[in-house]
Every structure is written in C-alpha cells, then in structure tokens.
C-alpha cells in the first residue's frame, strides 16, 4: 500500500515513541529526530511504499540509539493485557463455539498494536467494547470453504499479545485437519512477534514456526529470505493478521492465492483503502 498524507504525522509519532523507549539521552534524541526529518524529506512522497518507509525509519532509530528492541516492555504489557482478557474470550467461546466467533476474537487481539495506538491510549477499554461488536465484513463462508478444501495453511502473525488470542483460532483451524505453518519476524520491530515470543506463547503446539527472514513493518516482499519465499510460494491458502501485513501483501500479485485478511482498521488510510469505517473489524478475502 502507498502512503497518504496522514502517514506523515503517524511516522513522527512512532519515531518519538520509539526514541522515548530507546534512550533517555535528550541530545541523542535530538540528533536522531533531525536524521528522521531528513530521511522523510528525501523519501516521503506520493507513491512511496508505507511498510518500507516505516521499516527504514525504525531501523535508523535502532542503529542510532543502540537499542535493538525498543518495544520490549510494551510487548510484555501486550501479553499481560491479552492474558487478562483471555478468560472473558474463552467464556464467549464456551457459549458460542462457532468459527465466526473464533475469527472475531482473533481480530480483537489485533487491537493490541502499539504501532497504531499511543502508549497513553486505554487499550483495555477498546478491547472490552470490541467484544460486544460484530464483524463489519465477514467472508466467513468462503473462509470455511478454504479450510475444508486445503490441506495446509500459512498463518502470518502480527503482534505480541495478539498471538495469545491467535491460539484460540489456531485451535479451531486444527479441527479442520490442516497442517499449519506460523510465520514470525526474524528481528524485533515495534511489538511484532518474533520467535522467542511465539515460543513463549506456545504457538509451536499448533504448527511449524518459521521466520520471514527480516524485521520489517508488516510484510515487505523485497526483504524476506529465500527460505521464506519458498514457503510462501508453496502455500496457496494464507491467513494474514494485521494492517502491516495487509499493506505489504497488497503490493504483490496474489492472484494464485486463497488469502484472507483478519484485522481491525485502526487508521484512516487503511479504512479508506479497504472502504470501511475506522475501528471496523474485518475478515475478507482478497
């Protein structure tokens, strides 16, 4: 997906947040933010890829500050929030064990995104209210047909915290007898799940864990490893979690894929691109 004018202030908000999480050195922050202004001045323009731009900006911050994982504590916080609400969502599934409800709860987990929310946002209240909402777009029949017609699926996870809720959907997918491959980031970026996070959450109980070969914002086709490209190409059925993966995957040819996007539309640029309202929860086939 290409950037819009609204991505500009969002990049700067993320830059400030990542800097505050990376260092207490005010002079260093000033130096890095000047570099970011220069970077955006040279690269922020119509037609620029949003994921590549965000990835390069966060890479610059990590290199300049020496902090490899600025969102480490926020990942822990995301897990804590997810675990706090896990009994509530399990109770919902006890009352309604439908595939749609499992999908809905996995999408609610996507709200745990500190790349889209600020550190001061009341994420817990958003989750609580979302539990009462229905999906705005729900290609649930097509999704179930794909579960019944394929023997394997590639599941692209998104955020730490969110993966706690992903386990519930993965449990449901296992009932359809599919072999599951679960893809995580190879390097920390925002609060995206990496291999240690996935192992800590127990995702290896549901399928083979693989790394995409890079630490980018969402999916960036030019950055993935040859090993992961082979895995990606060998899967016709793909489940993609989150806005970042949507932004990146819509940049490539998916005509030979059965691909479903599960996400909460957390910014105006994404909402307009898909044609939905802000904060809508979506399951749709591309």
Structure description:
The protein has 286 residues and is α/β, with parallel strands linked by helices. It is built from 12 helices and 7 strands. Helix 8 links the parallel strand 2 and strand 3 (179-184). Helix 4 packs antiparallel against helix 5 (99-109) and helix 4 (72-95) crosses helix 8 (162-174). 41% of the residues are buried.
Proportion in helices: 40-55%
Instruction: Note the run of SSEs as H and E.
Output: HHHHHHEHEHEHEHEHEHE
What is the assembly state of the chains in this entry?
Answer: single chain
What is the level 1 CATH name of the largest domain? Alpha Beta
The named CATH superfamily of the largest domain: Uncharacterised protein PF01937, DUF89, domain 3
> Largest beta sheet, briefly?
7 strands, mixed
Backbone CA Rg: 18 Å
Number of E-type strands: 7
Classify the fold: give the CATH topology of the largest domain.
Rossmann fold
Shape: globular
What is the structural class? alpha/beta
The N- and C-terminal alpha carbons lie at a distance of: 14 Å
Uncertain stretches: none
**Number of individual domains:** 2
Q: Mean of the pLDDT scores?
A: 91
The number of helices is 12
- What is the correct CATH architecture of the largest domain? 3-Layer(aba) Sandwich
- In terms of DSSP E residues, the strand content is 5-15%
- Name the strands of the widest sheet in spatial order: 1-7-6-5-2-3-4
């Amino acid at each position: 997906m290409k950037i819009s004018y609204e991505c500009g202030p969002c990049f700067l908000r993320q830059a400030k947040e990542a800097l505050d999480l990376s260092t207490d050195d005010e002079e260093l922050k000033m130096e890095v933010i000047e570099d970011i202004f220069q970077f955006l001045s040279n690269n922020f323009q119509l037609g620029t890829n949003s994921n590549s731009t965000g990835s390069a900006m966060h890479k610059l911050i990590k290199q300049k500050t020496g902090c490899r994982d600025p969102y480490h504590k926020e990942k822990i916080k995301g897990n804590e929030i997810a675990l706090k609400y896990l009994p509530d969502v399990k109770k919902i599934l006890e009352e309604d064990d439908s595939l749609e409800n499992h999908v809905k709860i996995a999408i609610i987990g996507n709200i745990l995104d500190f790349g889209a929310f600020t550190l001061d946002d009341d994420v817990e209240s958003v989750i609580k209210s979302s539990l009462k909402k229905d999906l705005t777009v729900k290609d649930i029949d097509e999704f179930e047909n794909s579960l019944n017609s394929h023997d394997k699926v590639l599941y692209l996870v998104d955020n730490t915290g969110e993966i706690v809720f992903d386990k519930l959907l993965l449990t449901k997918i296992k009932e359809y007898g599919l072999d599951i491959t679960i893809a995580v980031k190879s390097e920390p970026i925002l609060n995206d799940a990496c291999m240690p996070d996935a192992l800590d959450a127990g995702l290896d109980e549901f399928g083979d864990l693989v790394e995409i070969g890079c630490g980018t914002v969402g999916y960036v086709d030019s950055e993935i490893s040859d090993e992961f490209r082979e895995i990606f190409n060998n899967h016709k059925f793909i489940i993609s979690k989150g806005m970042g993966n949507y932004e990146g995957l819509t940049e490539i040819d998916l005509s030979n894929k059965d691909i479903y996007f599960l996400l909460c539309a957390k910014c105006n640029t994404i909402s307009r691109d898909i044609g939905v309202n802000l904060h809508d929860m979506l399951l749709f086939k591309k």
